[in-house]
Design goal:
With about 100 residues, the protein is an alpha+beta fold. It has a single domain, classed as RelE-like (YaeB-like fold, 2-Layer Sandwich), CATH 3.30.2310.20. The protein is built from 3 helices and 4 strands; from the N terminus they run βααβββα. The chain has a 4-stranded mixed beta sheet. The chain is globular, with a radius of gyration of 13 Å.
Length: about 100
């Protein structure tokens, strides 16, 4: 089963906090649904996805796969059969400048 890195969990929590501060209950629900669907898709087809999200070709140099679920981009890595979501972004976020790169080594 796919899981989230600490960075991805913090990004998810930041999105939730943003929506809660603005009383955007529908956005909270949609984000949670999107995460659930992303986890299912990644578990079903771990080698699926794209090498970069939307217009961000330069991000393709990192070893992530990307899927878009509703209005969110999810970056994930697959190593040894385990899938890990590394980044979660709203579709209009400045992904290239906010992306958490893979750990060194």
């Amino acid at each position: 089963m796919a899981r989230l890195t600490a960075d991805a969990a913090a990004q998810f929590d930041a999105l939730l906090d943003y929506y809660m501060e603005r009383n955007r209950d529908d956005a909270i629900r949609r984000l949670r649904v999107a995460l659930g669907e992303a986890l299912t898709k990644i578990d079903t087809v771990p080698d699926g996805g794209r090498t970069f999200p939307g217009p961000y070709r330069g991000i393709g140099r990192w070893p992530y796969r990307w899927i878009k679920v509703h209005r969110y981009w999810f970056a994930y890595a697959v190593e040894g059969g385990d899938s890990v979501i590394t980044n979660i972004f709203f579709e209009s976020a400045d992904i290239e400048n906010r992306l958490q790169p893979p750990p060194a080594g």
